[in-house]
Amino acid sequence: MSHTHDHSSTNRTRLAIALGITAIVMVAEFIGALLTGSLALLADAGHMVSDSIALIVALTANVIAARPATDRATFGFQRAEVFGALINAIVLIVIAVVVCVQAVERLVDPEPADVLGLPMLIVASIGLAANIASALVLRPQASTSINMRGAYLEVLGDMLGSLAAIIAAVVLLTTGFVQADAIASIAIALMIAPRALLLLRDAVRVLSESVPVDTSVAEIREHLLETEGVVDVHDVHVWAITSGQPVFSAHVVVEPAVFAEQGAGRMLDSLSACLADHFDVAHSTFQLEPAEHAGHEEHFHP
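Below the sequence we write its predicted structure tokens.
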């Protein structure tokens, strides 16, 4: 328990440091965008807004997930992470659309020819350095938690946005090609959109209690049927409390000897171990049934 608490505390510290770095540079890039007239910097600042939200979500989820379950929240509070991811996805999509629209307008009518290349390059370089620092802070814990891995991937994605802004600034300084700023903005928006849509899909999948994308109900049923004493498995339900936290329930028809020999406890242990070992399902519920009871249930369950 102490080890888990220390682990969670370490994650919180790293997330807080990364959030501080990202928030400071986000403000710097936004001010830089206003001063230089760079849409690419504004797009990257918007990208960092999404990163800040993602880090806040990760930090909040880390704190809330540690709270114990209650009579009103029997699964605990881990789904807070999913609601945060939904908000983050919507913000990302809005940012991508707004940036794309403004960038296309600049390409069609490139009237603002006063984009300041050098300040743009300096601010974008600071942004890249900040992203690298945040990635180095988060990387050691990225393999220990899906929450931390999501935050780490957010920061890696933003590094690409900073690189696009730097390239646009260099092109602008060396060639005077003003449209490079708008092209870089579109590139950043195109980096944002796919990640936003995937995040939205994952959040909706969890909230609609669909089967997790990497889980096969048929494969789980086959594994359970291989357990000695199991005759049939029906009424299988698989969903997730949050990403990476699948929950499973099923009715399992067993041979009469399981009940006659008082082997129900051993059977439950075997079934739970099967799911935990092969499918990484930590929370599973089984209803053991004799064959005659399962036949009676067919009237109610397809």
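The chain is about 70% helix and 10% strand.
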